[in-house]
Amino acid sequence: MGDGSSGPTMDLLRSEPMQLVQLIIPIESAFRTISYLGDLGLFQFNDLNAEKSPFQRTYAAQIKRCAEMARKLRFFKEQMRKAGLSPSTKSLRSGDIDLDYLEVTLGELESELIEINSNNEMLQHTYNELSEYKLVLQKAGELFHSAQSIVAAQQSELELYNTTEQSVERSLLLEQEITMDPSKQVNLGYISGLVAREKSMAFERILFRATRGNVFLKQSVLENAVVDPVLGDEVEKNVFVVFYSGERAKNKILKLCEGFGANRYPFTEDLNKQFQIISQVSGRLAELKTTIDVGLAHRSNLLQTIGFEFEHWNFLVKKEKSIYHILNMLNMDVTKKCLVAEGWCPVFAKDQIQNGLRRATLDSNSQIGAIFHVLQTKESPPTFFQTNKFTSAFQEIIDAYGVAKYQEVNPSVYTIVTFPFLFAIMFGDWGHGICLLLATLYLIMREKKLSSQKLGDIMEMAFSGRYVIMMMGIFSIYTGLIYNEFFSVPFELFGPSAYGCRDQSCRDAYTAGLVKVHDTYPFGLDPKWHGSRSELPFLNSMKMKMSILFGVAQMNLGIIMSYFNAKFFGDNINIWYQFVPQIIFLNSLFGYLSLLIIVKWCTGSQADLYHVMIYMFLSPTDDLDDNQLFIGQKFFQILLLLSALAAVPWMLFPRPFLLKKQHEERFQGQSYARLDGNDYPPEIEPHSVSHNHEEFEFSEVFVHQLIHTIEFVLGAVSNTASYLRLWALSLAHSELSSVFYDKVLLLAWGYNSIIARGIGLSVFIFATVGVLLVMETLSAFLHALRLHWVEFQNKFYVGDGYKFYPFSFASLGQDDE
Length: 817
Prior knowledge:
Keywords: Hydrogen ion transport, Ion transport, Membrane, Transmembrane, Transmembrane helix, Transport
Main location: membrane
GO molecular function: ATPase binding; proton-transporting ATPase activity, rotational mechanism
Strand content: 5-15%
Organism: Salix viminalis (Common osier)
Distance between the termini: 39 Å
Protein name: V-type proton ATPase subunit a
């Protein structure tokens, strides 16, 4: 794997070599040490205080302090969101700020902002109340003015009535009514205010019932919504005036106003006082508006100042909190002067980590340097692959199935090519491939801008896999050129067709009368095949056989990878009693079938391969007759059949017995070695002793091997058949594309109407994008994923490892608090 200290191997085939390291750090340099390791991002700390609760750890108070500062920053962010401002990223990581100074600054800013908000709320509440009061004065004044006008009209009618000739008795009665004793007249009180329009009808009905109809309610609708002083929201309201008689009625009205949330305001009948109050209220509103605007401007300036430094402060607080979180994972030694850390790091990072430790010692003026000590352990290290933005998406596809065991073969090396290729076999159309490629090139060209934005779930998934989709588009263009399909239309891109009409009278060149007139079409499918009567049988045969060839090749690659795994880990038992019988069994049956397909293609034989494979098992000694493809085929088939039958017990029986023997020899040798008492380092001795006394369950191993053998034998058949999905989806994609082109676009183009053609073109575009470029892409993607996870990876990939998660500040900006 190369020299461990010189640099990363960047080898995607196997994970980076890892080592378990113990760091002994003086307390005075501990903070800087962890900070520099976080900048480096190549050390994964183990929690040495897992039995302690978060409140029992050494630096719980510092974490609580950082959490309080983070709360204040979240408060600032929420205030900026409400004000329509966004934090600036210009000053991100512009320099370090003392944490004590930052804590004081955040506290002062929070107090100032809370005070500004409180004053603004009070002023806004007063402003809203005065606005409502002004509306009540105006609308109630209109109600009283209209009522007084009606009374004046009635009095004028009454005077006119008295001047006419009336009986003496009627005149006396009217005069008596008018000149009634003022002390006996009823004085009516009134209450004015505003009530929500949606509650006005209910308010009127309940008011009538509660007072038994002994009130008079008059309402006036406000044209525009007003801001409610209590709720702070815009509400459509009505101005009301309730006339009543008596204190009991008044109390009931007040309670109903309170229950319905109606705001009451005083009102006077005197017109002079009304005008005076309206003038005072208007002046007060103007003053409040000016004061509120000044307060909002001051608040906006304060939030802009906070926003300019927000990202820097937020990163600093997160950084401090993460450092103290790591310090809480460290052990305090008995002298209380050093912290002991344990964790994993790549072998190549040894020099970088030691340089960071020395720099932390110098910067903190510590008299004692940190100690870097490599520990010996039998614990399985974490898996670490150095990926870039191109390979990371393919690695995520593999990790979704399972993280690779430490230094086992990584399937993503082959997946980079095989995954988009198998997808393209099912999606072969160079027109559709160009559409996919253009869409992903747009994402790649704008990746810097898009990576900093919040995208939707589907768009985020497409953006993260942009390089996978790009490769899928490129391979789809390649296979589409082989299939010679551009939105299901063939083109003579690489020269003229090899076929032409037999004579000039040939009218239907797609159904009859075609003869070979040129050399064979140089690349891909001859365009004359499309639309002919032989197209479907020919394509079915070609794609089905091609699927079997690719499937057998990929499964053989998986078995060969199991050989390299076994060789790397020095497991000869797996080489001889797993790899060898598996490769023999698979190729004795389906490798032979692949050979027959190639021979038939090369010789042009009319042999029936179904008959050959079936009677290879049923009647292996019968003559092949017309189905013979080469000399000695009968003997060769019998030899392959016997080899396949011999491979099954070869896989099943020897391995469990050899594992048992190996375990007994190892246990015996280790038990003798323990007599010296000096061969094991003290830190791993307890683990080694417990490992020596592990019992070997032969029955469990044998049953596991039996299951594995049955699974492989049956899987060889089912997995090969599973690759026929390449043929099925390729055919479905081609036929769907042909249907959309022939039955939608060409059918619409047959009309002379521009509207009909426009409708047909629109339907064709939406069907192509919605069905072929979205649904078919997803379908082919999932089927390619299944072929890699099940048919390919189960031949060699264990996938029971765990990822390497180093402590790094680079990921803090992406994490939510």
